Amino acid sequence: MKAALLVFPGINRERDMARTLRLVSGQTPAMVWHAETALPAGTDLVVIPGGFSYGDYLRCGAIAARAPIMDAVRAFAAKGGLVLAVCNGFQIACEAGLLPGVLMRNAGLKFICRDIFLKVERSDTPFTRGYNAGQVIRVPTAHGEGNYAADADTIARLEGEGRVIFRYTSPDGTRDEAFNVNGSTNAIAGIVNGRGNVLGLMPHPENHVEQVIGATDGRGLFAGLVDHLAKAA
Amino acid sequence: MKARVTVTLKSGILDPQGKAIEGALRSLGVAGVASVRQGKVFEIELEGGDRAQAEALLKQAADKLLANTVIENYRVEVLG
User: Fold this and answer.
1) Over the stretch A105-144, which tens digit does the pLDDT of each residue have?
2) A161-181 burial, b if ≥16 CB within 10 A, otherwise e?
3) A198-201 and A82-86: which strand pairing?
4) Average pLDDT score, chain B
């Protein structure tokens, strides 16, 4: 795995992400500053981490989405390269046009910082091959703007094409508005683009990869990516 | 030349911030408020004095950055 981890001013989860990538893949990711115009040669995974790029000014992710490096990321994704966008990264990916829709203020207006439950809807993607379809995982979440919204046609297309990959559910995988922490349409927590090579999700699987933390449910995502890239090479 | 771009949420888009402000107004005893929607106003100073050019430039600014047209509408005004 040759991961490129994007760094924008105001991002603060890039070190957790780098640690997880190193831990699971055995390789150190390249930290790529937003003002760069090219990704390192041989990059096979771009990761857009979480944080508060540009202090969430204007709209979450709006300014980072227009940074010089993003043209290179769009070109990389257009060629089928894998992009993992977490939390603020998901907001940046939506603003950059890599994914449809937008992440609005949480319906309850509160910043949510706790573990939540996600149902893995599909296991046949490069991002979820480390899980079984229907499996429920416990991962941390930390965001104030994670309320996924899009027009009705876009939602119908996402659902019809099986592009909703993660959903907020109860611990046993039941759809229940009480567990839809931020009020997202259809309890959507993570989606892929039409080609299936760009994943955006609000929760932080990178923070549940070591037993010392108390849970390792996030590890499957990274282990699956390592496996996928090893087989593709 | 002075100009203004006003960005508002499209109708039908949930606005929890507007709702919270609406509730706060009610609890302050400001009577007669039926609903509140929150938006943004950008006050922009432009170089040059051509109105048509200014409007085109403001539209470009709104489309490229100031508004997310998935959820927001915008209005540009050249104030002179």
Assistant:
1) 999 889 999 999 999 999 999 999 999 999 999 999 999 9
2) eebbbbbbbeeebeeeeebbb
3) parallel
4) 94
Using an 8 Å Cβ cutoff, are A136 and A99 in contact? no
Structure tokens at A162: 């099986």
- Residue A10's CB: how many other CB atoms inside 10 A? 15
Q: Comparing C-alpha atoms, which of A133, A131, A100 is closest to residue A227?
A: A131
- Of the residues A14, A87, A94, A208, only one is catalytic, namely A87
- Report the C-alpha gap between A115 and A129 in whole angstroms: 22
Residues of A (147-166) whose Cβ lies below 8 Å from B:
147, 149-151
- The answer to whether the pTM exceeds 0.90 is yes
Cβ contact A204:A142 at 8 Å: yes
What's the CA gap between B54 and B57, in Å, rounded? 5
pLDDT digits (tens, 9 = 90+) for A73-116: 999 999 999 999 999 999 999 999 999 999 999 998 899 999 99
Q: Mark yes or no for CB contact A102/B68 under 8 Å.
A: yes
Q: Which residue type, as a one-letter code, is found at position A8?
A: F
CB atoms within 10 A of CB B17: 15
Q: Which of A60, A121, A206, A208 is catalytic?
A: A206
B68-73 contact pairs (CB < 8 A, 24+): B68/A59, B68/A62, B68/A95, B68/A102, B70/A100, B70/A101, B70/A102, B70/A150, B70/A151, B71/A102, B71/A104, B71/A149, B71/B9, B71/B10, B71/B13, B72/B7, B72/B8, B72/B9, B72/B10, B73/B7, B73/B8, B73/B9, B73/B10
